[in-house]
């Protein structure tokens, strides 16, 4: 039985007022900022928009952000699967603590994450002297951007896959083991088909987050123009340069990625549970 | 050959049948240690190195105190708004059928999917003098951009899904029989809401508000665009830590970051306790 309309409730008029209020507030508060990005980005026409996107600095920022996501997302997927497999399919002391630990990056402000990394790998940081002696550059370079993005996105895949694996139990896997399957076969033939939509969903959310990370990357990247400027940092730079239309053009690419993520989410929502 | 005997005397405990335990747990712990734990420890060590007296001096300096006050005040305003708006959205999305409902539901995820810098950019332009809302509000005498209201607005935008998405599933799972019983007993709609529905969703609602509040305290990307970032007026704590870093004052940055970290962890604890309470409530309500 799907949620039946309750036999009471505010009158039809009351219901209409509540729906109207909800729609009105959401249009003003959420839909308007979303629409405004494209309105501003295209406010001087297609040609200016194209020129803004094809500007070398913007292209470089897109490139850097893409590279970061290409490195971070697969690592995060591997971590998410490993964490979910360990926690959902086995019992061991400290499981609850591990689950909470995985969620911690959600509660920590990305700015704090950035500061943590700077204090570890920066010139005055704990590992700073050693890194310098070995001529390794982590801060103000791609490794730092990748590491802080890994911190910020750590829980994304695990938290989608873990509850599903837990709900599915271990019976199917145990049957496969009894029938003589090895670990890799069990995972590929039994577990993976069961979790693939949740996994894809987690990966999409992780990509959206990795691409949009601002605070943490802002601390560790050093904002070197044309070198360590990711796309969100480039948006800020253009905004500070008073190039609003350029900033909105760059922002529109990020918004498109966000919209794609939401559409994929809507498409997967039904399948995830199945 | 001797292994056969193990099942006799030892207490019966589910044996590990599934492979890959060491590999998966090892990978998880390694990732967590290097990506999360060691960097956080680096911050805590830095805090210890500063020493209590200097730590206190940094944290209680007038500019830091002002930043904390501004951050807390704006986060309270944002959370109060989200508590009401989020509750309304959860209620409308669960209880009513109307055209466009799926779009409205999808829009609730926009603040999570949209990069915070993009949100900040758009809100700033929207509420400034040549945006859509700025002129209307200016006519009413309300200034949003470069004021604490702008900070609260950015915080509210980035954290509203926490409230909606925590309350929604609880409302969906509620047993209709409870409300039907109340109707049978002659309760009026408002009484049913306050006496039956609201107590059932209260733990989840509070948990969602706590998470939204925590997120607001740590928000940065959306706020730096709209705040104007004037010390003592519109400078938030996260930004002050950032400025200290740019001045190479690592002690100052670390001390402020540690205070924010402590806030975040305490709020995480409260939210987890509330979620635990909520899950017990849900099981009892079935």
UniProtKB/TrEMBL annotation, chain A:
<feature type="transmembrane region" description="Helical">
    <location>
        <begin position="140"/>
        <end position="158"/>
    </location>
</feature>
<dbReference type="InterPro" id="IPR035906">
    <property type="entry name" value="MetI-like_sf"/>
</dbReference>
<feature type="transmembrane region" description="Helical">
    <location>
        <begin position="198"/>
        <end position="224"/>
    </location>
</feature>
<comment type="subunit">
    <text>The complex is composed of two ATP-binding proteins (CysA), two transmembrane proteins (CysT and CysW) and a solute-binding protein (CysP).</text>
</comment>
<keyword id="KW-1133">Transmembrane helix</keyword>
<feature type="domain" description="ABC transmembrane type-1">
    <location>
        <begin position="62"/>
        <end position="269"/>
    </location>
</feature>
<dbReference type="InterPro" id="IPR005667">
    <property type="entry name" value="Sulph_transpt2"/>
</dbReference>
<protein>
    <submittedName>
        <fullName>Sulfate ABC transporter permease subunit CysW</fullName>
    </submittedName>
</protein>
<dbReference type="GO" id="GO:0005886">
    <property type="term" value="C:plasma membrane"/>
</dbReference>
<dbReference type="InterPro" id="IPR011866">
    <property type="entry name" value="CysW_permease"/>
</dbReference>
<feature type="transmembrane region" description="Helical">
    <location>
        <begin position="244"/>
        <end position="268"/>
    </location>
</feature>
<feature type="transmembrane region" description="Helical">
    <location>
        <begin position="62"/>
        <end position="85"/>
    </location>
</feature>
<keyword id="KW-0812">Transmembrane</keyword>
<keyword id="KW-0764">Sulfate transport</keyword>
<comment type="function">
    <text>Part of the ABC transporter complex CysAWTP (TC 3.A.1.6.1) involved in sulfate/thiosulfate import. Probably responsible for the translocation of the substrate across the membrane.</text>
</comment>
<dbReference type="Pfam" id="PF00528">
    <property type="entry name" value="BPD_transp_1"/>
</dbReference>
<feature type="transmembrane region" description="Helical">
    <location>
        <begin position="97"/>
        <end position="120"/>
    </location>
</feature>
<feature type="transmembrane region" description="Helical">
    <location>
        <begin position="17"/>
        <end position="42"/>
    </location>
</feature>
<dbReference type="InterPro" id="IPR000515">
    <property type="entry name" value="MetI-like"/>
</dbReference>
<keyword id="KW-0813">Transport</keyword>
<dbReference type="GO" id="GO:0015419">
    <property type="term" value="F:ABC-type sulfate transporter activity"/>
</dbReference>
<keyword id="KW-0472">Membrane</keyword>
Automatic annotation (TrEMBL), chain B:
<keyword id="KW-1133">Transmembrane helix</keyword>
<feature type="transmembrane region" description="Helical">
    <location>
        <begin position="255"/>
        <end position="278"/>
    </location>
</feature>
<keyword id="KW-0764">Sulfate transport</keyword>
<dbReference type="Pfam" id="PF00528">
    <property type="entry name" value="BPD_transp_1"/>
</dbReference>
<feature type="transmembrane region" description="Helical">
    <location>
        <begin position="192"/>
        <end position="213"/>
    </location>
</feature>
<feature type="transmembrane region" description="Helical">
    <location>
        <begin position="144"/>
        <end position="164"/>
    </location>
</feature>
<dbReference type="InterPro" id="IPR011865">
    <property type="entry name" value="CysT_permease"/>
</dbReference>
<feature type="transmembrane region" description="Helical">
    <location>
        <begin position="220"/>
        <end position="243"/>
    </location>
</feature>
<feature type="transmembrane region" description="Helical">
    <location>
        <begin position="20"/>
        <end position="45"/>
    </location>
</feature>
<comment type="function">
    <text>Part of the ABC transporter complex CysAWTP (TC 3.A.1.6.1) involved in sulfate/thiosulfate import. Probably responsible for the translocation of the substrate across the membrane.</text>
</comment>
<comment type="function">
    <text>Part of the ABC transporter complex (TC 3.A.1.6.1) involved in sulfate/thiosulfate import.</text>
</comment>
<feature type="domain" description="ABC transmembrane type-1">
    <location>
        <begin position="68"/>
        <end position="271"/>
    </location>
</feature>
<keyword id="KW-0472">Membrane</keyword>
<feature type="transmembrane region" description="Helical">
    <location>
        <begin position="66"/>
        <end position="92"/>
    </location>
</feature>
<protein>
    <recommendedName>
        <fullName>Sulfate transport system permease protein CysT</fullName>
    </recommendedName>
</protein>
<comment type="subunit">
    <text>The complex is composed of two ATP-binding proteins (CysA), two transmembrane proteins (CysT and CysW) and a solute-binding protein (CysP).</text>
</comment>
<dbReference type="InterPro" id="IPR005667">
    <property type="entry name" value="Sulph_transpt2"/>
</dbReference>
<comment type="similarity">
    <text>Belongs to the binding-protein-dependent transport system permease family. CysTW subfamily.</text>
</comment>
<dbReference type="InterPro" id="IPR000515">
    <property type="entry name" value="MetI-like"/>
</dbReference>
<keyword id="KW-0813">Transport</keyword>
<keyword id="KW-0812">Transmembrane</keyword>
<dbReference type="GO" id="GO:0005886">
    <property type="term" value="C:plasma membrane"/>
</dbReference>
């Amino acid at each position: 039985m799907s949620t039946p309309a309750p036999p009471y409730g505010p009158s039809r008029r009351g219901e209409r007022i509540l729906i109207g209020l909800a729609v009105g507030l959401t249009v003003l508060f959420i839909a308007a900022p979303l629409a405004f990005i494209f309105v501003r980005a295209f406010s001087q026409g297609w040609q200016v928009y194209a020129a803004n996107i094809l500007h070398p600095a913007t292209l470089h920022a897109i490139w850097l952000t893409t590279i970061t996501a290409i490195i971070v997302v697969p690592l995060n997927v591997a971590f998410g699967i490993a964490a979910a497999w360990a926690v959902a399919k086995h019992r061991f002391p400290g499981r609850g603590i591990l689950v909470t630990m995985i969620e911690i990056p959600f509660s920590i402000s990305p700015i704090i994450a950035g500061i943590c990394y700077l204090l570890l790998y920066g010139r005055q940081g704990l590992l700073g002297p050693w890194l310098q002696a070995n001529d390794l550059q982590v801060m103000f370079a791609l490794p730092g951007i990748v590491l802080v993005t890994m911190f910020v996105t750590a829980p994304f895949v695990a938290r989608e896959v873990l509850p599903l694996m837990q709900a599915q139990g271990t019976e199917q896997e145990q049957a496969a083991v009894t029938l003589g399957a090895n670990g890799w076969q069990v995972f590929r033939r039994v577990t993976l088909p069961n979790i693939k939509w949740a996994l894809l969903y987690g990966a999409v959310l992780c990509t959206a987050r990795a691409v949009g990370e601002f605070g943490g990357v802002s601390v560790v990247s050093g904002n070197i123009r044309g070198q360590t400027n990711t796309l969100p940092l480039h948006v800020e730079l253009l905004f500070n340069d008073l190039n609003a239309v350029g900033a909105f053009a760059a922002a529109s690419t990020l918004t498109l990625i966000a919209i794609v993520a939401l559409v994929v989410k809507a498409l997967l929502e039904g399948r995830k549970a199945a | 050959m001797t292994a056969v005997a193990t099942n006799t005397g030892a207490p019966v405990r589910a044996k590990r049948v599934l492979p890959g335990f060491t590999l998966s747990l090892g990978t998880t712990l390694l990732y967590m240690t290097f990506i999360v734990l060691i960097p956080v420890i680096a911050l805590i060590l830095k805090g210890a190195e500063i020493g209590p007296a200097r730590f206190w001096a940094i944290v209680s300096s007038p500019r830091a105190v002002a930043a904390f006050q501004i951050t807390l005040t704006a986060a309270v305003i944002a959370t109060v708004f989200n508590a009401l708006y989020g509750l309304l959205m959860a209620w409308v999305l669960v209880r009513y059928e109307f055209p466009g409902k799926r779009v409205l539901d999808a829009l609730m995820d926009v603040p999570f999917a949209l990069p915070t810098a993009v949100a900040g950019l758009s809100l700033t332009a929207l509420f400034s003098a040549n945006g859509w809302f700025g002129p209307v509000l200016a006519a009413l005498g309300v200034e949003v951009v470069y004021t604490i209201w702008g900070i609260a607005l950015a915080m509210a935008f980035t954290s509203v899904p926490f409230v909606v998405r925590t309350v929604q599933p609880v409302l969906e799972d509620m047993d209709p029989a409870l409300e039907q019983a109340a109707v049978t007993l002659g309760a009026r709609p408002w009484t049913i809401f306050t006496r039956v529905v609201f107590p059932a969703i209260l733990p989840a609602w509070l948990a969602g508000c706590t998470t939204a509040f925590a997120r607001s305290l740590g928000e940065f990307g959306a706020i730096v665009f709209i705040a104007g970032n004037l010390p003592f007026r519109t400078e938030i704590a996260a930004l002050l830590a950032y400025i200290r870093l740019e001045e190479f004052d690592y002690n100052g940055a670390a001390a402020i970051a540690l205070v924010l970290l402590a806030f975040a962890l305490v709020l995480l604890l409260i939210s987890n306790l509330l979620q635990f309470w909520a899950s017990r409530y849900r099981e009892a309500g079935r």
